[in-house]
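testing teh design pipeline on a random one, pls ignore if ur not involved
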């Protein structure tokens, strides 16, 4: 199996999820600790969650996630975890908008 980037996966086998949250005014302070805990839990508890980056900007109400899973099935497992479901309920009232994009053909460092 070739090494693609830092991941030991076949080229194109990974699954990327990009999420952009637009938070309600004054929600970022409450949202970020929950979001960072979710990222840590995903990496620690899900062997097929390969990367979970949380990006934010001091000047905006946006938070961007870049997640890499070993496969689409691994992402579906992520959505079924207790820690994801608990996070989803905890942040529901803090979010004004949420956009999700997924990519199944992934080439690292091309």
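output:
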């Amino acid at each position: 199996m070739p090494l693609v980037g830092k991941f030991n996966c076949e080229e194109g086998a990974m699954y990327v999820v990009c999420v952009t949250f637009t938070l309600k005014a004054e929600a970022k302070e409450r949202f970020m600790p929950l979001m960072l805990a979710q990222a840590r839990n995903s990496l620690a508890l899900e062997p097929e969650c390969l990367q979970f980056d949380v990006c934010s900007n001091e000047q905006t109400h946006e938070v961007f996630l870049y997640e890499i899973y070993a496969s689409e099935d691994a992402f579906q497992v992520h959505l079924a975890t207790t820690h994801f479901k608990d996070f989803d309920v905890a942040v529901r009232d803090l979010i004004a908008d949420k956009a999700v994009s997924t990519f199944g053909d992934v080439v690292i460092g091309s």
